[in-house]
Every structure is written in structure tokens, then in C-alpha cells.
Design brief:
Length: about 300
């Protein structure tokens, strides 16, 4: 057993040697850049980075900023709603397509098509659709319902839900495809056995199929959660952070302070907190996936 390990190190040497430049690039650019960002988040860098350390001053200022707190609140609302709704809608669509319906390929293409668009395009399209002057509100009122009001992008209390609509429209198709792939991987004998035993379809999904799809759910959760933390394009395209600061998100806060406010230290502190949020999602997933495989 011990003699096999040294020999295994020399297997596929050509592939391992070819991967060295990529590994070094990742170490220097990504890991090095991460440590550089964290280090300078403890400085009072303004237009240019400078090693004038001020301890946790930038973080204290960050968490005392009402703008940052609003951005965190918006991200939590968007993130929780997006996770729940995208998983529920995506799984239901996948379950319907898994019934071998007619024109399945056409429906799958139509539902996945929004994911092919950029967030900027999606944001602009839904900005037009939700515009009260010529969007949904205008169309409904022109049909006779003069009292109908639907302008979420212009209402500070619900503007984040207007962004959520666009996000769900674009991202739910990807969730559907991932769930459909998981459903197609379920042995058909399970369905036959449940029919023979007279088990309702919904109980088969809840108690048998969904637990078997745990790896698919975890992988999908990581993909969706990392995208939520990086939410920026939709906000810029739809609202620009407005009305006022009602739709502010952390990624926009970082961009504004680093490139418009010329306060690199504050931008680095905010981006470090975003990195921490991503790590909270990625690390448990890695431990569940790779740790479980290692123990197995």
C-alpha cells in the first residue's frame, strides 16, 4: 500500500506538468490578489494603495454606514427569496418536463433561453416591462383597469422585488436544467416500485427522489448562492441603486467606493466581507463533497 503511493505520483506526468503554469497563475493572481486585498483593507488607502495601517477602522466605518447596512438587508431579502423561489420553480418545471411531454426539447430551450442573455440585457428588458409609462401598468390600464398600479422599480419599499423578478426570469432555467439532469439520473425501477405499492407521486418525490438528489441540490445551491453575493449587473441596469439607495447591494458599494469615491481602503474592506460571505458557502460545500468522498 505504501509503495503504491510514490508510484501514483508519477502517473499522468505529462498532464501534471502541463497544469503547472495554470496552478502558478491561480496562486499568484487569485490567492495573491486575495491576500493583497485583505492586507490593504486595514489601511487608509485612498486613490492609490499605501501601507498606512489603521487597524479595523475601515471595518468599523463600514458597519456604521447606513448605506452598507441597506445593501446587506437588500442582499438578504433578494438572496432568501431567490433561493427559495428558484429552487421551487426550477424543480417543478423539471418534474413536469421529466414526464416525457411532447415538444420537450422546445420547452426546455424556451425556458433556458433567458440564461443565455447577460444580466445587463435582462435588466434593461425588465426595466422596460416594469416601467409604468409603457410597461405592464400601462397595458393593464389601457384595458380599462384605471386604478391598477404596478411600478416596483419606482417604489423604495418593494424595489428589490422588482429586481428579483428579473433575476428569477433569467436564472430559473438553469436550475430547471440541473434538476432535470438529477431527475433523469434516478433509476426508473424506483418509480415502478412506487406505482406497484400505490405510493402517490408527491410522496415519491418528497421522501425518495429529493433525498437521492442531494448532490445536485448542494451543487446548485453553491452556484446560486455565489451568484447572489455577486449581484451587481441587474441593479445597475434596472435601478442604478435607486430610488435613492433603496436597491443598493454590496457589489455596487464596493465599485462605487473603489472607482468613484476613490477610497480603496473602504472598498477593500467591503470586498473582504463579500469574500467572507462566499467562503461561508463554499467551505461547508467542499467539506461535504470532498470530505465525504475521502471518508468513503
Amino acid at each position: 500500500m505504501a509503495t503504491d503511493r510514490p508510484l501514483s505520483l508519477f502517473r499522468n506526468m505529462a498532464a501534471k506538468i502541463a497544469a503547472i503554469p495554470m496552478i502558478l497563475t491561480a496562486m499568484v493572481v487569485f490567492v495573491g490578489g486575495t491576500f493583497w486585498t485583505i492586507t490593504y483593507s486595514f489601511t487608509n488607502s485612498k486613490l492609490l494603495p499605501r501601507a498606512n495601517f489603521v487597524g479595523f477602522d475601515q471595518y468599523e466605518r463600514l458597519w456604521n454606514s447606513s448605506r452598507w447596512l441597506v445593501s446587506i438587508e437588500n442582499l438578504m431579502i433578494y438572496g432568501i427569496c431567490s433561493l427559495i423561489l428558484s429552487f421551487v420553480i426550477g424543480f417543478l418545471l423539471a418534474a413536469l418536463l421529466d414526464q416525457k411531454i411532447r415538444y420537450e426539447d422546445a420547452f426546455r430551450t424556451i425556458l433556458l433561453y433567458p440564461f443565455a442573455l447577460s444580466f445587463i440585457v435582462t435588466g434593461l428588458v425588465w426595466q422596460w416591462i416594469l416601467n409604468p409609462d409603457f410597461g405592464i401598468q400601462f397595458i393593464v390600464r389601457s384595458m380599462g383597469w384605471e386604478s391598477f398600479a404596478f411600478d416596483p422599480l419606482y417604489n423604495p419599499k418593494i424595489v428589490i422585488f422588482g429586481v428579483l423578478i428579473a433575476g428569477l426570469w433569467q436564472g430559473t432555467g438553469l436550475i430547471m436544467v440541473l434538476m432535470l439532469a438529477g431527475l433523469r439520473g434516478i433509476d426508473q425501477e424506483i418509480w415502478k416500485a412506487s406505482r406497484v405499492d400505490g405510493i402517490p407521486a408527491w410522496k415519491t418525490y418528497v421522501f425518495i427522489v429529493i433525498p437521492m438528489m442531494r448532490p445536485v441540490f448542494i451543487t446548485t445551491l453553491v452556484i446560486v448562492a455565489s451568484g447572489i453575493v455577486r449581484l451587481y449587473d441587474l441593479i445597475v441596469a434596472q435601478t442604478g441603486g435607486g430610488p435613492g439607495l433603496a436597491s443598493e447591494v454590496p457589489a455596487k458599494y464596493v465599485y462605487d467606493y473603489m472607482f468613484q469615491g476613490q477610497n480603496l481602503g473602504q472598498g477593500f474592506a467591503a470586498s473582504t466581507m463579500m469574500l467572507l460571505a462566499v467562503a461561508v458557502v463554499i467551505i461547508p460545500w467542499a467539506m461535504l463533497e470532498f470530505g465525504g468522498k475521502k471518508r468513503g
